[in-house]
Specification:
- There is one protein chain.
- A hairpin with a 4-residue loop joins β8 and β9.
- Strands 1, 2, 3, 4, 5, 6 and 7 form a 7-stranded mixed sheet that branches.
- The chain has 7 helices and 16 strands.
- The protein is 24% helix and 30% strand.
- The relative contact order is 0.14.
- The radius of gyration is 21 Å and the shape is elongated.
- It has 289 residues and is an alpha+beta fold.
- Bound molecules: zinc ion (ZN).
- Zinc ion (ZN) binds next to loops.
């Protein structure tokens, strides 16, 4: 098995399946695809994936339990589905995608990120946000429609920026949240607000969390982060002021770190796991790429 770490720089960073968006609109085609002998379904819900022996369980669709059928797409000659249920762990093992992700194949990582993001969205959007009526699932699990007012609701993705900021001495700005294990530092991050660009969100979050003014900001990479419905958008940026004051709420401490200091923290496991984009941003800076 080719694992995520062998293929991708970090988890959830490269689609490995074709999403088949056109097929979602065709009920006859969907029935054929569900009935195909090679079709497989994962059982997901409540933030977890049904597993067997620590691996995601892909059932022949004929053996799948009752639940909301979500078409994920095509890969490796099969069509892949998710069945959304209230409790995938009922009479079975189940694990969160976060627990599973470091050990998944790149294909399963791709499929289960879509499955988990959609299942998380369905769970908290049973009713119409406009009129309050119960909504119906449509388009193979990718849309909800309101029978009362006709509103169409699309899956939600919440963008967050995550950034590695450097100073004029080539040090990196890392901070720690009060909730983290002692000694753990990471890149700063925060949600994008309505009406602002991604670059402005980077500058605002860094200002709020550390009082540092950031000038130039450049896009680096992005990562699907379906916990529950996020999208991490990675940037590198240059500070133009250097004196740190933390807000004490989101951030209890922030510091400028030299490469040597970050190397020591890496070996002490005091930075995020290698499946995260923050770890990739830190490593990319550390190795000078
Ligand atoms: Zn409605």
């Amino acid at each position: 098995v080719t694992q995520v770490r062998d293929v991708l720089p970090f988890a959830f960073s490269l689609a490995q399946h074709e999403r088949m968006a056109v097929a979602r609109l065709d009920p006859d085609r969907l029935a054929d695809l569900w009935g195909a002998a090679s079709s497989r379904a994962a059982v997901v819900g409540d933030g977890r994936v049904r597993t067997r022996d620590g691996e995601p369980l892909w059932l022949p669709t004929g053996d799948a339990p009752e639940g909301e059928r979500v078409l994920l797409g095509r890969a490796d000659g099969s069509v892949w589905w998710a069945v959304v249920v209230d409790d995938p762990g009922q009479d079975h093992q189940a694990q969160t995608l976060r627990e599973l992700a470091p050990y998944l194949s790149a294909r399963d990582c791709s499929l289960l990120a879509e499955a988990t993001g959609l299942a998380n969205w369905h769970r908290v959007h049973p009713r119409c946000a406009r009129c309050g009526e119960s909504t119906d699932v449509a388009e193979a699990g990718h849309v909800r429609r309101c029978p009362a007012c006709g509103a169409t609701h699309f899956p939600r993705t919440d963008p967050a920026v995550i950034m590695l900021i450097t100073d004029d001495q080539d040090r990196a700005l890392l901070g720690r949240s009060p909730a983290w294990p002692p000694g753990r530092f990471s890149t700063l991050a925060g949600f994008v607000e309505p009406g602002e660009t991604l670059e402005d969100a980077v500058r605002r979050e860094v200002m709020e969390e550390s009082s540092i003014v950031v000038g130039e900001v450049n896009y680096a990479a992005s990562q699907a982060w379906p916990f529950p419905t996020g999208m991490m958008i990675g940037f590198v940026g240059r500070a133009v002021t250097f004196d740190i004051t933390v807000d004490g709420l989101e951030m209890e401490q922030a510091k400028w770190f030299t490469r040597d200091e970050v190397s020591v923290m890496l070996s002490a496991n005091s930075v995020p796991s290698t499946m995260s984009i923050s770890s990739w941003l830190i490593n990319t800076w550390l190795t000078g790429h």
